[in-house]
Amino acid sequence: MSLQLRDITLTYPDGDSRLTAVDHADLDVPAGSVTAVIGPSGSGKSSLLAVAAALVTPDSGRVVVDGTTVTGMNQAQMTAVRREKIGIIFQQPNLIASLTAAEQLQVMAHLDGRSARDARDRAVELLDAVGLSDKKDRRPHQLSGGQRQRINIARALMNDPAVLLVDEPTSALDHERGAAVIDLITTLTHRRATATVLVTHDTTHLSGVDQVAEVLDGRVRVPAAN
Ligand SMILES: Nc1ncnc2c1ncn2[C@@H]1O[C@H](COP(=O)(O)OP(=O)(O)OP(=O)(O)O)[C@@H](O)[C@H]1O
C-alpha cells in the first residue's frame, strides 16, 4: 500500500497557450505514513492531489496507487480504482443534512455493494475510531465543525483505502480543533497503514507528520532533512 507519482506534468488551457500547474513532480508516499504537501496559493497542491486521486489524467508521468498503475486507464477503470483504493477528504465535509452520522457512513458502503449489516458494523467501528460513538444518531446540524470533519474522515475510510488524500482539512476550524484533526489523521494513518497525502496551508500542526513536501510553481521538493 503506497502512492507513487513519477515525473508528473499537468497543464490547463490558458488562452492560446497552456498553464503548467504541475511540473515534472515526483512524490513517494509509503504505506503507514503522512506526507504533508505545503506551498503558496496557486502553487499546484490541489492539482497534484487531483492527479493522485485519479480525478484528472496528467499530460505525462505515472501514478501508481497500491501497486496499480492508474495512468493510461480509461474513466471507468479510474473510477474503480478510486472506489477500491482511495479515500478522499475535502475541505468542507459535504455531509447530507437529513442523515445521521452513522447513516452518512453506511450510505458509502451501500454504494460499494456491501451488505447492510456489514455497513452498520463498519460504521460503528469507524465512528469509534474517530471518537464519535456517542454521536452516531446526530444529524450534521447537531454536530460541531470539528465533529463534522471527523465524520468526513470516518466516511473516507469506509472502503478501507490504501491511499488517503486530504485537502485542507483544518481551514474551517480553529487552531486547537485543527491540530486535533491533523493528529487524528496521523494516528489513523499509522494504525491502518494508509499512504496519506495532506495538503495544507497551515504549517503549525506538522510536527507529527512523516514527510513534508514543498510545492512551488508546480515543482515538488522534499527537503533531505525530513
Ligand atoms: N481547472 C483549472 N483550469 C485552469 N487553470 C487551473 C485550474 N485549476 C487550477 N488552475 C491553475 O493552476 C495553478 C495551480 O492551481 P492549484 O489549485 O493546483 O494550486 P493550489 O496550490 O492548490 O492553490 P490553493 O492553495 O489556492 O488552493 C494555478 O495557477 C491555478 O490558477
By helix and strand content, what is the structural category?
A: alpha/beta
**Which percent range describes the beta-strand content?**
25-35%
Helix segment tally: 6
Number of folding domains?
1
Radius of gyration: 17 Å
Counting DSSP E segments of at least 2 residues, the number of strands comes to 10
Low-confidence parts: none
Domain ABC transporter: 3-224
GO molecular function: ATP binding; ATP hydrolysis activity; transmembrane transporter activity
Protein name: Putative ABC transport system ATP-binding protein
InterPro entries: AAA+_ATPase, ABC_transporter-like_ATP-bd, ABC_transporter-like_CS, ABC_transpr_LolD-like, MacB-like_ATP-bd, P-loop_NTPase
Outline the secondary-structure elements.
Elements (H helix, E strand, L loop, with lengths): L2 E12 L2 E13 L3 E6 L6 H8 L7 E6 L2 E2 L5 H11 E4 L11 H11 L4 H14 L15 H12 L6 E5 L7 H18 L2 E5 L11 E6 L2 E3 L5
Parallel strand pairs: 3-8, 3-9, 6-7, 7-8
Antiparallel strand pairs: 1-2, 1-4, 4-5, 9-10
The site of adenosine-5'-triphosphate (ATP) has 11 residues, from strand 2 and helix 1.
